[in-house]
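Narrative of accomplishments. A recurring question from our advisory board has been how the design workflow behaves on a single, concrete structure rather than in aggregate. To address it, we present the structure tokens for one chain from the evaluation set, followed by the sequence designed for it. No filtering or post-editing was applied between the two.
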């Protein structure tokens, strides 16, 4: 058992495609493609801006990525832009999330989010999901103005909790995030919800799970 369980937010606790799914009929002819490009560009912008040392917070990048997606997919509806951004602030959490967090808290284990998301984004999503009381901290990289997978982002957790890296279990659905956290020294669980092929063979997770319920086995 670890002293802390730390979770990535987007794709791990919250369904990043739920914003578009709520408004599927108003997005245009290919809403699934819009959602896919939106997510891919959102992540791409974090990596590019970190490499350039030109930080913009995650909310700005989310809006920029949506603008690109709507422009890139033919016959998309630009009028849905604000509706989708509003929906992104209150993404659906995955079904098992509240139960898993509750059971971890009952064991007196620290639980936290470590996310690229800005503080206002994380607060809104956590409040919408009703899981505020199940989390000890919401770590946002906005505090240090650099995105994951910079080691400094993971160090926020160990510094705050005065723990060794291997005392922290880190969970993410993003394989690149698992690679970064593993390199830092966290014990990682890759939540591979969509059965993606493995990569980063030199930076393997402790376990691969289909959802967060596997943490309780």
């Amino acid at each position: 058992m670890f002293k802390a369980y730390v979770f990535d937010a987007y794709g791990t606790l919250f369904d990043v495609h739920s914003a578009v799914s709520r408004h599927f009929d108003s997005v245009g002819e290919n809403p699934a493609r819009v959602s896919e490009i939106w997510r891919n560009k959102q992540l791409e912008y974090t990596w590019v801006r970190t490499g350039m040392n030109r930080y913009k917070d995650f909310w700005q990048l989310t809006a920029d990525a949506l603008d690109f997606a709507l422009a890139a997919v033919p016959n998309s509806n630009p009028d849905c832009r604000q509706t989708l951004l509003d929906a992104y602030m209150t993404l659906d959490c995955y079904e098992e999330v509240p139960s898993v967090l509750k059971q971890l808290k009952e064991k007196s284990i620290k639980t936290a989010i470590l996310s690229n998301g800005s503080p206002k984004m994380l607060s809104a999503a956590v409040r919408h999901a009703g899981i505020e009381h199940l989390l000890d901290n919401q770590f946002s990289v906005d505090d240090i103005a650099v995105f994951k997978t910079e080691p400094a982002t993971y160090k926020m957790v160990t510094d705050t909790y005065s723990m060794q890296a291997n005392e922290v279990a880190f969970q993410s659905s993003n394989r690149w995030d698992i690679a970064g956290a593993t390199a830092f020294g966290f014990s990682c669980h890759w939540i591979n919800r969509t059965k993606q092929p493995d990569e980063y063979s030199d930076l393997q997770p402790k376990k691969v799970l289909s959802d967060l319920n596997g943490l309780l086995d």
